[in-house]
Amino acid sequence: MTEAEVEFEDPAGDFPDPDPGLQAPEKSALDQKINDLFAGVVVRKDLVKAVKGNAIVPSFVLEYLLGQYAASDNEATIQTGIETVRKILADHYVHRNEAELVKSRIKEKGHLRIIDKVGVTLNEKDDVYQAEFANLSIKGVLVSSSTIKQHEKLLVGGVWCICEIEYSHTDDHRAVPWILSSIKPIQLSNFDFDNYVSTRKKFTTDEWIDLLIQSIGFNPELFGRRAKLIQLARLIPFVERNYNLVELGPKGTGKSHIFSEFSPHGMLISGGEVTVPKLFVNNANGKIGLVGYWDVVAFDEFAGKKKRTDKALVDIMKNYMANKSFSRGVETLGAEASMVFVGNTSHTVPYMLKHSDLFDELPESYHDSAFLDRLHHYIPGWEVDIIRGEMFSTGYGFVVDYIAEVLKSMRSLDFSDRYESTFTLDPSISTRDRDGIYKTFSGLMKVMYPHGAATSEEIEEVLRFAIEGRKRVKDQILRIDSTMNKVNFGYVDKSGEWHAVTTLEEDEYPEYYHREGSEGAEVGEPKAGGAVATAGGAQSPSAETVVDKPLFEGHREFQENQRGVSFDTLLVPYLRGATQITITDPYIRHFTQARNLMELIECIAATKDAADEVSVNLITSENSEGGDKLRKQFELLLKVKQGAAVGGINVDVIFDGSIHDRSIVTDTGWRILLGRGLDIFQYVTGDAFDLATRLQAFRQVRAFGVTYIRESE
After folding, report:
1. 46-62: per-residue pLDDT in tens?
2. Which residues are bridge partners to 43 per DSSP?
3. Dihedral, CA atoms, 217, 222, 227, 232, nearest 10 degrees?
4. Separation CA 337–CA 266 (nearest Å)
């Protein structure tokens, strides 16, 4: 019998018919593998929404119950489990507006099991511990010392629990009639870590990353590699001790969600609610604050220039973030809690780079180089898409309290040296910069490669990501405090080759990132970091500004999530004046790919003389799936051909199943090698009010390379 079955009586009566609105999604090969190898600790992630209803309860509470009743790939078992969990919530979860009804039920029955958030305080006058139930709105309930010794977190912030409450009224008006007969925090009691590590070996890196993304609750198919790493970086504070992380970005990108919903070991508090006693220690009674009990303390709504702050708190926080300790009177205490700061930005990245810095939104007391220098990593929240309904996963992922316990168990491990046999950091990188890089690298390695096996390419990917996040911190500090020394962020490989690391916004907006400017860049030529010489990357040059300037020859690389890239700047300058253009791309099959082709044709039509005609030969391959998908491909290409004809562009399509390379060749002597073909942009919503729908420069790109070769005409 499972723990949940011990806690709750079996729901009485027949189960209602399965929810007709909850259709079982088609199971992918990865989902089948997940169920085969992690049976019993994974759950279908769309079930949380199905059972939550109007219950204001964290996801880890719901998944704890789903993990007991619906951790299966059998649809009948899942449907039965859903109805069981729904009935448990209906019978035992306490809604605030039904508190009096629940209290009445306890009185009439004499006892009842409930699900509520419980906090405990010490009543020094009577020398007893007393519990307060958040939704049931009762307090003063006696709690035994043995219970507190088992569950110390009850004293700090409150914990979601399954409780047995009894009612016994007496004539003593001072006595509380409520009796706590049993209490069990909602979290996994035990798990097999060795099995977790050994099973990881049976997954490829891509499969494992997708499993983790699904565990967070997202559909990995809608995320690129870099976007997935950013999501995984949010897990580092749970797996790395004393890790200091900041994420600033637009509203609605899920910055705080993972710290409030994902783990019972994290505490999310409003930035305005922070005080020295709450966070560190109450010197009046010696009571330790949040950092002494929680693995992660996250500050929500941390940004806001006009927010009032306690300078004493900032000073204590700086000392804790640097030394992992704080003072209680004459005593120095250590703690392991990671600190996370999340907040919203109100300006675009180029605006902040041009007028201030990327920490501009922080309160004045925190906009301080000494405080900021203690941050290990800066997640670029502006790269994260605003959460949309289709981004949520219907696949299988770890039950969150299971993965939360796994991450907690790895906090004592150190993976920071796993790159040293292959790469060497630049000696100019300071100790504090190295600490930030080490901790991010160690944390992400533990999340992605807990078994310790990674190729040199995989290690390099994690190392570059760790360096970039610390560089983002340091480069902004240099804008605030000119006395700080500049650093060469990069590394040397085994062959002795130097690899510089830049931030993505540095590549996108070099003219604003480097305040000394980047004058004289040729059109199409990369400035420092590889960005195109355009007005902030958001406008394409007119014909008059580019026609007389030499075009760049050679190879360029673009990072995933980079913005400011468009066919106008990437390709059109090389196609200008051509009357014969051959585009070779084997993958013009789906709507988005045909749309990209049509957008290139639009660019050609907009720049050619209205009296000229241009011939475009498209060499592509047929959709190998055949049937309706092949028919749809033909329809899309026909529409492109018909639309292009209106602008004096004649499109001929040639199918060749043997092609693989992607290129554009013109009769003016240019050959452009396209690593990804025309399919360089990430998902676009199609919303008419989204700038990215109409302007390519506002879209994020996939990682790709392009090579420009000048041939004879």
Report:
1. 888 878 766 677 777 88
2. 397
3. 20
4. 9
pLDDT of 89 above 90: no
What would the two tokens of residue 95 be?
A: 């809604």
Residue 713's pLDDT is 58
Min mean pLDDT across 52-61, 324-333, 410-419, 637-646 is at 52-61
Q: Is the pLDDT of residue 699 over 80?
A: yes
CB of 480 closer than 8 Å to CB of 359: yes
- In this prediction, residue 72 carries a pLDDT of 80
Distances, alpha carbon 428 to alpha carbons 431, 432, 471, 556, in Å:
9, 11, 13, 27
Question: Long-range contacts made by residues 450-455, C-beta under 8 angstroms, separation at least 24?
Answer: 450/196, 450/197, 450/200, 450/406, 450/410, 451/197, 451/198, 451/200, 451/201, 452/415, 452/418, 453/201, 454/205, 454/418
Could you please report the per-residue DSSP string of 413-477? ---TTTTTTT-EE-TTS-HHHHHHHHHHHHHHHHHH-TTS---HHHHHHHHHHHHHHHHHHHHHH
Strand partners, 618: 583, 653
Interval 547-575 mean pLDDT: 91
- C-alpha–C-alpha distance, residues 33 and 403, integer Å: 17
Which of 277, 477, 265, 279 lies closest to 378, judged by CA?
477
Strand 490-492 with 281-282, pairing:
unpaired
Q: Residue 593: which of 651, 698, 673, 680 has the closest Cα?
A: 680
| pLDDT, tens digit (0-9, with 9 covering 90-100), for 375-405 | 999 999 999 999 988 899 999 999 888 899 8
DSSP state letter for 66: H
Q: What is the pLDDT of residues 132-181, one digit of tens each?
A: 998 999 999 999 899 888 888 788 767 888 899 999 888 887 888 999 98
- Tokens in use for 642? 């018909």
* More confident position, 647 or 306: 647
Going from the C-alpha of 297 to that of each of 283, 342, 417, 480, the distances in angstroms are 20, 11, 26, 27
pLDDT tops 60 at residue 105: yes
Length of the chain in terms of residues written: 713
Element (H, E) at 478: helix 456-480
Q: How far apart are CA 413 and CA 230, in angstroms?
A: 22
The answer to whether residue 23 scores a pLDDT higher than 70 is: no
Q: What does the alpha-carbon distance between residue 193 and residue 188 come to, in Å, rounded to a whole number?
A: 13
Three-state DSSP state, 709: strand
- Within 250-328, strands assigned E span 266-270, 281-282, 287-288, 296-300, 325-328
Question: Structure tokens of 543?
Answer: 């014909």
- Higher-pLDDT residue of 481, 56: 481
